[in-house]
Amino acid sequence: MATKCKQCPLRLQHQFLPMSQDEVNAMQRFKVGELVVDAGAPILMQGSNSPQLFTALHGMGLRYKYLENGKRQVVNFILPGDFIGLQAGVMGEMGHSVEATTKMTLCVFDRSAIWNFFKDNPERAFSVTWLAAIEEHFLGDALATVGQRDALQSVAWALAKVYLRGQQLNMVSKSQMPLPFRQQDLADALGLSLVHTNKTLAKLRDRQLAQWSDGVLSIADIDKLAAIAMIEDTTVPPRPLL
Amino acid sequence: MATKCKQCPLRLQHQFLPMSQDEVNAMQRFKVGELVVDAGAPILMQGSNSPQLFTALHGMGLRYKYLENGKRQVVNFILPGDFIGLQAGVMGEMGHSVEATTKMTLCVFDRSAIWNFFKDNPERAFSVTWLAAIEEHFLGDALATVGQRDALQSVAWALAKVYLRGQQLNMVSKSQMPLPFRQQDLADALGLSLVHTNKTLAKLRDRQLAQWSDGVLSIADIDKLAAIAMIEDTTVPPRPLL
DNA sequence: CGTGGGGTTGACTGAATTCAAGTAGTGTGG
DNA sequence: CCACACTACTTGAATTCAGTCAACCCCACG
Fold first, then answer.
1. Could you say which residues form the signal peptide (chains A, B) (predicted)?
2. Per CATH, domain B149-228 is 3.40.50.300
3. Nearest CA of chain A to the CA of B1: how many Å?
4. Which residue, of A46, A87, B3, B44, is most buried by count of CB atoms within 10 Å of its CB?
């Protein structure tokens, strides 16, 4: 049965900002159901005008876009708590596709209700904007990575970033977290070839900085990795949840 | 003297969505003044928590961030109508710096009033989110460019994109628009070296696809350029103005 | 009239891509 | 039970696109 917002397991994690009772109720009214998709299933298509918006509850996925020449850019990895479909929600068209990498559970919201949602719940509207700003911030970082970091720094950056997010989501135990993506996904996220990504991962493994195999990422010393990645601030600020 | 929102020259351009009288009044109340800065002046600093937000009225500028190793990533070019400081407004910290490339005139808004602004003007709140979504869309495109396009395609993409924006802003006449940046700025935006950017510009010039010298960009056939850049849609959708 | 910023060009170097081959694990069907 | 196909990952060698180094030009400016 669909999870009630009041009982939402994500909401209580300290990474997410607390919500007032009114806000929880507003989310509950905005939520029209729950969707479970299998690994590999498409969720939103680039250029589409989806009638639905989502928040990831369980599982992981990918945002990506294809170019005319067949190359794929992975925009980012989707983890629980991520809001999906903002662009369709306000602009009416997605700039990228979204697909599930593992089996996923998603809260479903009705796109056509978003205007009333904004009107009736200014705190929640502010939270939507806040999430958009966080995404913008992240994309700026990603751009700087692909544009200015070399392969070793890039891979270190990406692994450190997911690991830090994983820590906030309580997915890390004994320096390990699940990371069910393929090397090709990471390569497409960083604008590197699969071969070079593989060799770079091997280098990080040899230097005992990060190990990623069989869908499990293991990082012994996150600060050392962050130093190589030129990440200045390893704290993850709290964020709103939709 | 400060421009009244009612007389805002940008508002009437067809690229910007129309605003109701109430919305114009709300903007006027939100606006605390106007700021004129000289070419080269910093407007916002990466990591800062600015008390002010801006909309560019005249002039052009740059968003950029520096990495620890001294490399600079230009995040995008700022043209009239662009909103500046969203991240500081909602998250309390800018992810990039902003500086004026030419002399600029900026509408100034009070960051601390943003919450009431959201509460009292849901249409305007929606517009802020819309702008954030547009920016997110753009950054996704930029990421795909730096990650997946080669140098020729990248430079073509960047020039075509500004040109299309320039057209919407009535800055183009006889296939020409002002583009007062340095080649280094473009290079830093695309993750290319200055030398290679220069040679790539020469290639586009030789092929009569785009000419950019003395701060003036000239494009004879935008569709041909867009084809090289793998830009699928050369229309620029209307957007809100703050 | 020197100085410095921006732009241009050629020669050399190198990081990352492409090509190629091979391993390991998994699932399928004869 | 084994041959086959398929996917993900791995590794070495050859190639190339883009970076670095180094000059040089032009021009605005003090």
1. none
2. no
3. 32
4. A87
